[in-house]
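Help!! Second protein's tokens look totally different from the first
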Amino acid sequence: MEQNENTEMKILEAANEVFKEKGYDGTSMQEIADKAGVNKSMLHYYYRSKDKLFHKVFQSIFSKFVSATAGIFSQDLDILEKIRLFIDTHIDFLMRNPDMPAFIIHEIRRNPELIADVFKSQGQENLVSSFFNSLQEAVKEGKINPVDPVQLLMNIISMNLFPFAAKNIVTSVFQVTDDQFTILMNQRKSEIFNMVKIMLENK
């Protein structure tokens, strides 16, 4: 049983690397088998098709994000503190997985239905509804300005994601090293939060 779990883990780790590097269309099951150090028949024993394996990899990617951010908006915290914590947690997650945004954006264009299915299966809808409910409650209590929750969440996620999705451009245009990029992203947490805070508090 343990050997089976180890083999499956090796396959998933290999698939994750190859899919991120080459995308769905550029990846073959043979490449994944070679990367995992298993024969192709063993790979097909665990995953009968590239579609099933790709779906599993995508689920794994989203589950990491869900586990990192789950529960933030259900905590007994001020709405601005919840938003600050979400921004910090999201950017920390992206710094640990810097190649993920570009990969996801590419696959969204290729197969948007898959992304929507994984989104639902991983409980992302609960995160969104929790965020919306927190905002609506804060507005009713007069703590923040009325705001379109969809626009706000899209703005936050977009501001968090862009530097990672376009990292090669960012580092080239601004001539920063990887270490300097990390410093910039840590500073970006406060920059984004302050912009959101001004918008929500400005009467």
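Here's the second one for comparison:
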Amino acid sequence: MKFDPHLPQLPSISELLEHPRVKGVVARINRSTIAQRATGFLEELRWSLAERTGKVEVPSVAQLAERLARRLLGEPPAGGPVINATGVVVGDAELRPPLADAALHAMVQVAGEYHDQGRRLQQSAEAELCHLTGAEAASAVNSFEAALHIVLGSLAANREVLLLGAETGVPAHWRKLAARHGVILHTSDGDLSRLSSEFGGRELAAVVRAATAETTAPTHEVAAAVGRRNLPLIDVHPVAGLLNPADYGMQPVETLRQRIEGGADIVVAEAAGLLGGPSCGLIIGRRSLVETAARHFLASISSISAATAAALHATLSIYRDAENVEAAFTIPVWQLLSAPLANLQQRAERLSSLLAATGHVAAAEPVETERPWLAAGDLRLSSPTWGIDIRPKGSDSAMLGHLLRCERPIVAKSDNGVVHLDLRSVFPRWDQQLVAAVEGLTT
């Protein structure tokens, strides 16, 4: 088969190997593996484009580099990377967001050689966290759940605690969590004006503010009400980070600094949330309370790995070096959340026309909807977004199953026979993969 001379010129393999996305992979793979896996890459791509001329756009250099990088790395293991088309950017425990390139590189540097336990890296990351949040002290442990147990066990074991917010917030079962530490849990509907009258006579160890839809009062108001009782305020939020989504037209989620400056004595958060770092638990706040938590026996068996410490430190360094200005363009979570609606609309309109032309789709339409971008336990925050409603010629369940069986599985949702691809959580580099996946659908 002769290739159409009118097909656009593709870059050479040597050009692609110099792309930053590929160079990081090349540095970790021996030359024989590179030669074996790169062979035929451009030829296969040219054949594919020739067969589908007029149906798809020619990939950009960045998209080609991403494809080549995946090919060099080999087939992903079962349960590996997926394309998230649910629209939920943070909070879903089953869909951990990607790390920044700098964090990935830091992990490879540490994990690729002999290393110590990473204690110095962890200490550097904790110091960086204090600098960025204004906290007196910080401690990182291996999970958000471990951080909760450590804080509750060290500050309130066998005592009484007042919980502001629903018991089914995050975590889902506060009663069980409290029972493991002998904590007697009292709940309040969040009405700050009634705190003194309802609980004025109780010897409380602390007040815990849970992250639920009902606890919408700003931290300074909660801290003022709690402060009248001279009690420590433990602020628990699974996804709080260093940027506020309100700056990008979404519902506000107070930053870690805003919570500390607002009067929270301890903040417990997940680094894989809006911070955009590796999955681990963060405990920040007053030095005396953080140090008490760090002495708890669970803290000694919940330390983070050296690779996690390296990724956390590298992620925090992005915020420090850029003073938050460039973080939205560097941290993958913020690349998604800061994408303008107009860009999502353009992508949705372009992709819907390509999807509508595939053989097993009855209709594909761009739609503007309001869908959750944050989903953590019962906590849901939604904002306007653009996506594609696909009505398959077969069943929606069959299409969802097909998408999950693709080489790069695609996680999506359906309703009333329509499959919806929400572009809020899809990186532009995966747009053509969406089209190819739907094209490959069989009845």
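Reply: Different proteins will give different token patterns, so don't panic. The CA atoms of residues 83 and 410 lie 5 Å apart.
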